[in-house]
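Table S2 (continued). Query chain:
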Amino acid sequence: MSRPFLVMFTGLLLALNAFSCDITLPAFWSMEKSLGAPIEHVQAVIPVFLFCSAIGQLVFGPASDAYGRKPVILTGVALYITGALIAAAADTLTVALYGRALQGFGSACGAVIARALLRDVHSGPELARTMAFASSVIALGPIIAPLVGYGLVVIGEWRGVFVGMAIYGAGLATMTLMRLQETNKSPDRGAIAPVRLANAIGRVFANRQSRYFVLLSGINSFAILSYVTNAPRLYKSAFGIEGLAFTALFAATGAGIIAGQYINARLISRLGVMAATRSSALVLAATAITIALLSHLGVISLLMFAALMLIYNAAFLVVMSNAVSLVIDPHREIAGVASSTIGFVSQLASSLLVFATLPLFHGRLLPWSLGMVVVTVIVAAAIMAYRPRTEH
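Corresponding output:
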């Protein structure tokens, strides 16, 4: 199995959640009209998906340690496809959300096993660099997914979006069957025993570095999930932008993720993982403060906001990618559990925070940007305060 294939395949797995969220954004207004549901309820298709994905990560990570990576990927993808088809056939938002929940649970196999695959074959700075390159595939999600979603809405309204996700899942299953080699050479069937699982999770939290960045990832993930969930309403309420114009601008800001991942790889090579993470956390907080200040003064324009969000996306991905590698690096023998733990905490915390803050923001730019200032300043301060044991 070649390294280019491994990077591409793990990148597609890592992108599964982001793709499955971003592709639905152009469908919000179509779902509102077709299903007769308030837009605030339609927005729940994103946090419901991620909440169930968080729970699934506690299952798929240990299962991949016990039975191998390949069979668990295939199981998860099968659930993902089934959930997408249920949502596509739904005649009420409730049924669509049930399908979305199953889809989210199945999608958990993506990120958790992608991280474990990389940890099976890499460690240390090489793990961080490979994670950065694999994560660069994620960048295609925010760029391509909204455009694909808009095209599918034009062709088949909102139902076409869910059919498109089922096709994505079928492609992953085909690649797994035909190209992926098993990287878990010593499956441990006892890994899924409740006591063993609890002990393994305890080992992750017992490690100072892993514990610190697991908890931090939950706060940091909210910084981007809140933007994605609120984006259609933010652009419409603040700038009067919707439809294709919104889709194109949202996709354009996703280019920051591509830039961020390549910058991250260079920063890691020159400065190390922690220095790259610290500098990016400061940029993330500074960008959020700038957006809030310009919004408060009433001088922020559409292009200014899009440019700042491009920087915001780049900084977020650098921080998150490195946080993941810092969590799982000390745990090669339980890479699946370590990956599950960070996925569970980050997605559970961020999805619950999004649910809690939707009524507060109401799709308005200033309240949303002030919320992001609070979150990003906390993240930056925590990262700046952290000192690895080897630093003096």
